[in-house]
Automatic annotation (TrEMBL), chain A:
Name of this protein: Purine hydroxylase delta subunit apoprotein
Superkingdom of the organism of origin: Bacteria
Pathway: Alkaloid degradation; nicotine degradation
Entry GO MF terms: 2 iron, 2 sulfur cluster binding; metal ion binding; oxidoreductase activity
Automatic annotation (TrEMBL), chain B:
Species of the source: Halanaerobium saccharolyticum
Protein name listed in UniProt: Purine hydroxylase alpha subunit apoprotein
InterPro entries the record matches: Ald_Oxase/Xan_DH_a/b, Ald_Oxase/Xan_DH_a/b_sf, Ald_Oxase/xanthine_DH-like, AldOxase/xan_DH_MoCoBD1, AldOxase/xan_DH_Mopterin-bd_sf
Domain Aldehyde oxidase/xanthine dehydrogenase a/b hammerhead as annotated: residue spans: 45-153
Pfam families membership: Ald_Xan_dh_C, MoCoBD_1
Domain of life: Bacteria
Gene3D superfamilies: Aldehyde oxidase/xanthine dehydrogenase, a/b hammerhead, Aldehyde oxidase/xanthine dehydrogenase, molybdopterin binding domain
Gene Ontology molecular-function annotations: iron ion binding; oxidoreductase activity
């Protein structure tokens, strides 16, 4: 079947089978390999994307369900030369180890800050609770999201000037 | 620092991917400075390439048919139905690869494929390699492979495995290896001890659980006679040598390229996808990909050893350790993997960071039909820590002294000698560490 959806701001039209997972569609058909598979069971958060504004485990979504959806993956957030403040904060806070959980962590951080620009540390912990980092780098990941909140606040006040 | 030294340092830092000198140009040294991880930019943008992220246009997908019983003789394998699945390119069974040899980190006891007449020893043992145009076809064909087996007793307990009437999981018996430790006169010291405490401790299987499952891609370069394998390993050159000997090729015919590794923690020391990928690549002449599911990774690849530790510890009236006897029995599962080294190291750490003049130890790695156990952070020492610290707490209570004071009495100092005979000549800060913990935790002597 044919589906139409928007990925990272670009409208795409694709032929999918009913048993294709959104995860495979993004990784294999669209080459968005920043979306990772950790467990295939919606437990680990490595395959997290933002779909219609909500954090979504793409391994649990049948591709046809993404018809008409708007999806953001880590590739749509910022590039190497123009990092999003959250990505920049992850680099600067030393939050990245093996890196496999990081795209999901960054998107979970973004979703949180979109809704709650100045979260408490407790709120950050809660916002990231669907994502597992096996390198156990949580402390610095939390630091990174807190740092990003500060950066975004400064940027926001700049743009208001 | 000379320019050349700077260049070397810069090169080293960039290529170990552990640090970078970018952003700290004002400094000549790294200690005391924040250094940014060289590959962090790739990882925050999703550009980093992990094994599963490698694609070729004419890529084939590999799935492995695995054991149907933890301990059974394979009587027959029927691939006729599986071969009819549309998109299947090749199904490899043991008779197709008669020259391929067993592999393994320390003991080469792992078969590449189980042949009829041979035994499957755990649920991860491979019976057939299925290669197909799509993942779905490979999966479908794998599930259509029919297997007949003769079931044997399943041994899940190393103590059962060590009994005389237990069936041998491997031809040379179930005890893979035995290590001994002897220092001083343990029997005499126990006789003269004020208190002797003997307890049995049991730890469990733990999966290292790196976020990224075992995965890889291989491509056979026929003109050069070289197999390129993109897959994670923690022992690049050992893996290369093991794959080469298994396939009866020379090492320079096996090229292993490390993509970004999504964590390992010991689990990726063992060969996983490599040999099956190499065989599939050579037979089909096309690029091939094999990615384990999480379930497959948990069933097939190594674990932290469950260890039974029997500790007998003596102290004198003044609270000094007099003698320590340890039995350290590791369930290494169906294959040895790092087991022989893990139980060796674990035994040497039986007394933890505490001085004890008289020591006796024995350790075994024992085959069972459980998933094989290998390396995981600490390599046998984490299991031992649980047991020796419990001993220390129990003895302190029996002596009616503060468990922290009891540890301070016995803690390693400079010039202490470890059970394996190493004299600690510098950087022994254990006493300072305990004191600092007491201070920071506002230690009240262990009483409520």
């Amino acid at each position: 079947m044919q589906i139409t959806f928007t990925v990272n701001g670009e409208e795409r039209e694709l032929e999918v089978t009913p048993y294709t997972r959104l995860l495979d569609l993004l990784r294999e058909d669209l080459g968005l390999t920043g979306v990772k598979e950790g467990c295939g069971k919606g437990e680990c958060g490595a395959c997290t994307v933002i779909m219609n504004g909500e954090l979504t485990a793409s391994c649990l979504v049948p591709a046809p369900q993404a018809d008409q959806a708007e999806i953001l993956t880590v590739e749509g957030l910022g590039t190497r030369d123009d990092l999003h403040p959250i990505q920049e904060s992850f680099v600067e806070a030393g939050a990245v180890q093996c890196g496999y959980c990081i795209p999901g962590m960054i998107l979970a951080g973004k979703r949180l800050l979109d809704e709650n620009p100045q979260p408490t540390e407790k709120e950050v912990r809660y916002g990231l609770s669907g994502n597992i980092c096996r390198c156990t780098g949580y402390a610095k990941i939390i630091d990174a999201v807190m740092m990003a909140a500060d950066k975004l606040a400064v940027e926001g006040s700049d743009s208001n000037d | 620092m000379t320019d050349q030294n700077k260049r070397i340092k810069d090169y080293f830092c960039k290529h170990t991917t552990r640090c970078t000198i970018e952003g700290v140009k004002k400094s000549k040294r790294f200690v005391g400075h924040d250094v940014l991880k060289a590959d962090a930019w790739d990882k925050v943008t999703g550009e980093a390439v992990y094994p599963d992220d490698i694609f070729f246009d004419d890529l084939l997908y590999v799935k492995i048919k695995r054991a149907v019983h933890p301990h059974a003789i394979l009587k027959d394998i029927d691939i006729s139905q599986a071969k009819k699945v549309e998109g299947v390119v090749d199904i490899v069974i043991a008779e197709d690869i008669p020259d391929v040899r067993q592999f393994g980190l320390i003991i080469r006891d792992q078969p590449v494929l189980i042949a009829p007449g041979e035994k499957m020893r755990y649920m991860g043992d491979p019976l057939a390699i299925v290669v197909a145009e799509t993942k779905e076809a490979a999966k479908k064909a794998r599930d259509l492979i029919k297997v007949k087996v003769e079931e044997l007793e399943v041994i899940t307990d190393p103590f059962r495995a060590m009994e005389d009437d237990a069936p041998d999981i491997h031809p040379d018996g179930n005890i893979v290896i035995t290590h001994h430790l002897n220092r001083g006169d343990v029997d005499e010291a126990f006789k003269n001890s004020a208190i002797v405490e003997e307890n049995r401790y049991q730890t469990q299987f733990i999966d290292q659980l790196p976020m990224q499952n075992e995965a890889g891609v291989a491509l056979y370069d026929e003109r050069r006679g070289v197999i390129n394998i993109w897959a994670a390993t923690q022992w690049l050159h050992d893996t290369q040598a093991d794959v080469a000997q298994s396939l009866r090729l020379s090492k320079d015919q096996i090229r292993i390229i490390q993509p970004t590794i999504g964590g390992a923690f010991g689990k990726k020391e063992d060969v996983s996808v490599h040999i099956h990928l190499a065989i599939a690549a050579m037979r089909t002449g096309r690029p091939v990909k094999l990615c384990f599911t999480r379930e497959e990774s948990m069933i097939t690849q190594s674990k932290r050893h469950p260890i039974t530790i029997i500790n007998k510890t003596g102290v004198d009236r003044d609270g000094y350790l007099t003698a320590w006897e340890t039995k350290f029995i590791g369930d290494t599962g169906a294959y040895a993997s790092s087991g022989p080294a893990v139980v060796h190291k674990g035994m040497y750490h039986a007394t933890g960071p505490y001085n004890c003049p008289n020591l006796r130890g024995v350790s075994h790695a024992v085959y069972t039909n459980n998933t094989y156990a290998g390396a995981m952070r600490g390599f046998g020492t984490a299991q031992g820590a649980f047991a020796y610290e419990q001993q220390m707490d129990i003895l302190a209570e029996k002596l009616s002294i503060d468990p922290a004071e009891f540890r301070l009495k016995n803690i390693y100092q400079k010039d202490s000698i470890t059970p394996n005979g190493q004299q600690l000549t510098h950087s022994v800060n254990a006493e300072e560490t305990i004191k600092r913990v007491m201070e920071l935790s506002d230690w009240k002597g262990g009483r409520k």
